[in-house]
Amino acid sequence: MPMRDQYDRLLAAYIGAAETGDAEAMTRLYTEDVLLLTPGYSPISGRQAIQEHHKESMGDGYKLTINVQDFQDQGDTSYAAGTYETEDRNGNWLEVLQRQSDGSLLIHRSCSNCN
Q: What pLDDT digit, counting tens, does each position of 61-77 carry?
């Protein structure tokens, strides 16, 4: 399956987890050694810390709209960037994605800001 198609599936799973408040499902979309840079927080590293962050920040879920403005497939690593909007904020994001040994695609680095 092309990397962009895999990314679109990952993105749909991410949005679904955000909307239902499922921090555990969202956490499975990241590599074990993920690094998350998000406004108002120190860098968050590793799946366990990401899950705790999402449990705290997601609540019962929220409506999320993501627009992908750029996607670059570089083999086992890809890059995606775009904008996001929730009910109370919007901003920009950049992700580094890695293909895993089983062929799946996971978020390896993620950075966002608020406008």
A: 999 999 999 999 998 99
Mean pLDDT by 10 residues, the chain (115 residues): 92 96 96 95 96 91 95 95 95 97 95 94
Give residue 63's domain range. Answer: 3-112
Cα distance between residue 92 and residue 13, in whole Å: 19
Question: Which residues make Cβ contacts (< 8 Å) with residue 93, sequence separation at least 6?
Answer: 66, 81, 82, 83, 84, 110, 111, 112, 113
Q: What is the count of structural domains for the chain?
A: 1
Assign residue 51 the CATH number of its domain.
Answer: 3.10.450.50
